[in-house]
Specification:
CATH superfamily of one domain in chain A: MetI-like
CATH architecture of one domain in chain A: Orthogonal Bundle
Oligomer: heterodimer
Number of helices of chain B: 12
Largest interface: A-B, 79 and 71 residues
Distance between the termini of chain B: 53 Å
Distance between the termini of chain A: 30 Å
Number of strands of chain A: 0
Radius of gyration of chain B: 21 Å
CATH superfamily of the largest domain in chain B: Periplasmic binding protein-like II
Strand content of chain B: 15-25%
Largest sheet of chain B: 10 strands, mixed
Structural class of chain A: mainly alpha
Number of domains of chain B: 2
Shape of chain B: globular
CATH architecture of the largest domain in chain B: 3-Layer(aba) Sandwich
Number of strands of chain B: 10
Order of helices and strands of chain A: HHHHHHHHHHHHHHHHHHHHHHHHH
Shape of chain A: globular
Helix content of chain B: 40-55%
Radius of gyration of chain A: 23 Å
Helix content of chain A: over 70%
Number of helices of chain A: 25
Order of helices and strands of chain B: HEHEHEHEEHEHHEHEHEEHHH
CATH topology of one domain in chain A: MetI-like fold
């Protein structure tokens, strides 16, 4: 049987790397050729572009900072402390990630009237804050009991709280870096806030406009790739720096077999509860409340009540969007399935690569992590065009037109999120458990399945779930890849154009509800993992 | 734990093959309106029709890029564009093939390609949308928008995408690029708000941020339908006015289309008076181009209710290609 293929991990790793190359790097090949065409680089050294680039950098850095400042404490308060309602808020953490950022932007404008670049920074920061929160929650879920309890006994809850922040700092920074990366590639939200107030532009708009000049030839494809390159390079550098910070902080930690229990806060309970409630209001309740209001909001000359408009909008959303939602779920499931299959091998390889004390291996691991993230950092339009060029060939029609093609491309694009989450969790498995499994002579696949993944099942499923969610939210690739077009994202953004605001709000909530349902069911019925 | 591996493998295996459709239509018109037409055609012919749609954020470019990227092995049979410039771009790239549809009879000559590569139908007009609940200082002509007394209270989309790009390319063709670029600069200086798209400036008018905006008739219809106190005014009318710009939907057959017979059948259907009437009666209130089409009273018709300008579309498409970098430099910074 193939599962008993041996103790060496390499056949499995080569399979996983092969799948990654096929799904994520082959579509990027036409863009990567730009690296070999120096003449394409001339166009990017324009003062106008430098200004745009600088604007994008500070805006995305601030969005990342907001994600950090909101996501980090929210996760600490919701996942490690005994506060009223903390269980509910903990499982609501991924909720904003399920909403299209543009819908959240519209909600914030509706609530506050905000516009301009600062509004964009704020809205994107809050939209991606759950990324930071989820990474922190994962890291804290397995905080060492011995360190926590001794701090609590010796120094009290305030210092124990500080300890939680210290332990989760690398995860928070990695999550915030990813948030900044996502914010730096988004131009729909800046475009929206720009249209409401002071006109401003961001670099991704320039990248997108370059794809508009695409003539179906390699030259114009490369021009778009060349313009995108600086943003990709800076994002890659930011990720590399986050890995350096993680490695330095990680060196202070050691594995332990006992995990800390949620802390009771004593006199700090009231202020911390207020803080948690405030973050929750910012992250979930205000924007969701506004979006719900939008489902029935109309102009002053409109006939009928708010309730009748909202009911009609939800009914319209169910009727029109039902098949697209089903399609999107299938697409998300495929992308998630790809991550479920491939992420464990790559996460383990990445961990082993950096798990030694030689500095060159640490550097190699960081480079591997950054390289792994390249498909995520590449502009989606370029990836989509590259996928068409790679897979639209005579005889390949059944594959090209199938749901599998976008499933693989999207799975490959968002795979780094699953790998990073899983690797972070795998790094906390007690070394003794791994060693004893090795000594029994178990084949590699069995060790991975029954020792590592059995312990990290939540992180494994969460990573695949996030890949599925991002695949469902992806718009540019959905427009370009055949079987992905009949999706909820395309219908949502298509309706957005035609001022069908009630429908858009109702459909956005419906998408969120549907995506959140499995999370809720999982949270309600899952038992805490013992590590 | 094995189940976590086996289930994804099964899922991937089941999704690896697709059924081939009888007709593939790429469509840039709003999905909510065009999918009804596609469904009607599928019901009548019994063909399995697969549609693909674009989104406003991509401003037609998503599907055009897909057509360009697929050119060596086309997958689409028909492209139904909600504007005209990119259709002409596809023709110039050799991606369309001629088809003289008998249904195109009656459509004015100015909206048809002389070589039958594309045909226009059901148009949108470029109009002013003004609030009716207050006194509004509304320009009568497009060029008057830059006058400070009007500009301070109005908005238009940046001429980077969609119908606004086509509109200002047409103006540039008529009045020189220098004139239009200087005018755009003056308009911004005078306080005219520049939005991301026509729907955005329409929303700002509905919300009362501005008193009027330059937009399309379909966006104006959406504003009125949503219960906002607004009305449409056609620009450049009256003595000496060059008329409002009408931007038609266009349909073309893709070169080496995999299903050419079904493609011709669909083009005949979509160019019929019946479909123009359906689009006129839809929420987007598309303006029929051929005379005598049964349109609701609230849909204003060229020649009867307003004066439309005439345009050389091939020249506008060329101008658009040349002007786009200038507009980009002016508005993306």
């Amino acid at each position: 049987m193939i599962f008993h293929s041996g103790r060496s991990p390499w056949p499995w790793r080569f399979l996983a790397l092969g799948a990654l190359l096929l799904a994520a790097f082959w579509p990027l090949a036409p863009l990567l050729q730009t690296l070999l065409s120096p003449q394409e680089w001339a166009s990017i050294f324009e003062p106008r572009l430098a200004g745009l680039f600088a604007q994008t950098l500070w805006m995305s850095a601030l969005s990342g900072l907001i994600a950090l400042l909101v996501g980090w404490p929210t996760a600490v308060l919701a996942s490690r402390l005994h506060l009223p309602g903390f269980g509910w808020l903990h499982f609501l953490l991924p909720l904003p990630l399920l909403l299209p950022p543009l819908l959240l932007a519209q909600a914030w404008h509706g609530l506050t009237g905000m516009d301009g670049p600062w509004a964009s920074v704020w809205s994107l920061g809050l939209a991606y804050a759950p990324l930071s929160a989820l990474f922190v929650a994962r890291a804290l879920r397995h905080q060492q009991a011995s360190a926590h309890e001794s701090t609590l006994l010796v120094a009290g809850p305030r210092f124990a709280l500080n300890e939680m922040f210290r332990v989760s700092a690398p995860a928070a920074i990695l999550g915030a870096t990813l948030a900044a990366v996502f914010a730096s590639t988004d131009f729909a939200v800046p475009d929206y806030f720009s249209s409401l107030g002071d006109k401003f532009s961001v670099y991704p708009a320039e990248v997108f406009n370059h794809w508009r000049s695409y003539q179906g030839d390699p030259a114009t494809l490369k021009q778009g790739a060349a313009v995108a390159a600086p943003l990709v390079a800076v994002s890659a550098l930011a990720l590399y720096a986050a890995f350096v910070l993680r490695d330095r902080a990680g060196a202070l930690e050691s594995n332990s077999s006992r995990i800390a229990k949620p802390m009771r806060c004593g006199s700090l309970c009231i202020p911390l509860s207020v803080a948690l409630l405030s973050f929750s209001v910012l992250l979930f309740f205000l924007p969701l409340g506004r979006i719900l209001y939008e489902t029935g909001a109309t102009g002053p000359e409109s006939q009928g009540s708010w309730a009748s408009h909202a009911t009609a909008a939800f009914s319209d959303a169910v009727q029109r969007g039902r098949s697209d939602l089903g399609h999107s779920l299938a697409l998300g499931a495929l992308a998630g399935a790809f991550a479920l299959l491939v992420a464990p091998f790559l996460a383990h390889f990445w961990l082993q690569l950096g798990g030694h004390h030689q500095p060159w291996r640490k550097r190699a691991a960081r480079l591997f992590g950054t390289l792994l993230a390249l498909p995520l950092l590449a502009p989606a339009v370029g990836t989509g065009l590259g996928a068409i060029l790679a897979f639209n060939r005579p005889g390949w029609e059944p594959f090209y037109d199938s749901l599998l093609m976008p499933g693989l491309v999207l799975g490959g694009r968002y795979l780094p999120i699953a790998v990073f989450l899983l690797a972070e969790r795998m790094s906390r498995i007690p070394q003794a458990r791994i060693e004893s499994a090795r000594l029994t002579g178990m084949p590699y696949l069995f060790r991975l399945l029954y020792v590592r993944l059995a312990t990290c099942r939540d992180a494994w499923l969460l990573g695949a779930g996030l890949v599925a969610v991002f695949a469902i939210r992806e718009l540019d690739l959905a427009v370009l890849l055949p079987a992905a077009n009949a999706s909820a994202a395309v219908r949502y953004y298509n309706a957005l154009h035609f001022a069908r605001d009630n429908f858009v709000a109702a459909f956005g909530l419906l998408i969120t509800l549907l995506l959140f349902l499995p999370v809720a069911i999982h949270a309600l019925f899952s038992k805490p993992n013992d590590a | 734990m094995k189940i976590h591996f086996l289930l994804p493998l099964l899922l991937i295996a089941f999704s690896s093959c697709a059924r081939e459709a009888d007709l593939v239509v790429y469509c840039s018109l709003d999905q909510v309106h065009s999918e009804k037409i596609l469904k009607l055609f599928a019901d009548r012919t019994g063909l399995d029709v697969m549609g693909a749609w674009d989104v406003e954020r991509n401003k037609t470019v998503g599907l055009v890029n897909r057509l360009l990227a697929e050119q060596n092995h086309p997958r689409a049979d028909v492209y139904w564009n909600n504007e005209i410039a990119h259709t002409i771009r596809l023709k110039k790239a050799g991606l369309t093939q001629p088809y003289a549809s008998p249904s195109a009879e009656g459509i004015p000559f100015g909206y048809k390609d002389a070589d039958h590569h594309w045909t226009g139908f059901a148009a949108r007009a470029r109009v002013f949308l003004q609030r009716t609940d207050k006194e509004v200082a509304l320009p009568a002509r497009v060029y008057e928008m830059a006058e400070p007394q009007f500009a301070r209270h109005g908005a238009m989309a940046a001429p980077l995408t969609g119908t606004t790009l086509t509109h200002f390319s047409a103006l540039s063709l008529n009045d020189s690029s220098t004139h239009v670029l200087t005018w755009l600069d003056k308009a911004s200086q005078s306080g005219l708000k520049i939005g991301a798209g026509n729907a955005d400036v329409m929303r700002r008018t509905c919300e009362g941020d501005v008193d009027w905006c330059l937009t399309d008739t379909d966006d104006a219809a959406a504003a009125r339908r949503n219960g906002h106190p607004v009305e449409v005014v056609f620009p450049d009318q009256g003595e000496g006015g060059r008329g409002a710009l009408l931007i038609p939907n266009t349909v073309c057959m893709i070169a080496n289309a995999p299903h050419p017979d079904a493609a011709r059948q669909f083009i005949d259907f979509v160019l019929s008076a019946e479909v123009e009437a359906l689009l006129a009666a839809s929420d987007s209130e598309q303006i029929p181009l051929r005379p005598g089409v049964d349109a609701p009273d609230y849909v204003k018709l060229p020649g009867r209710d307003f004066h439309a300008t005439t345009v050389n579309w091939e020249a506008v498409a060329n101008e658009l290609d040349q002007r786009f970098p200038d507009f980009q430099k002016q508005f993306v910074k």
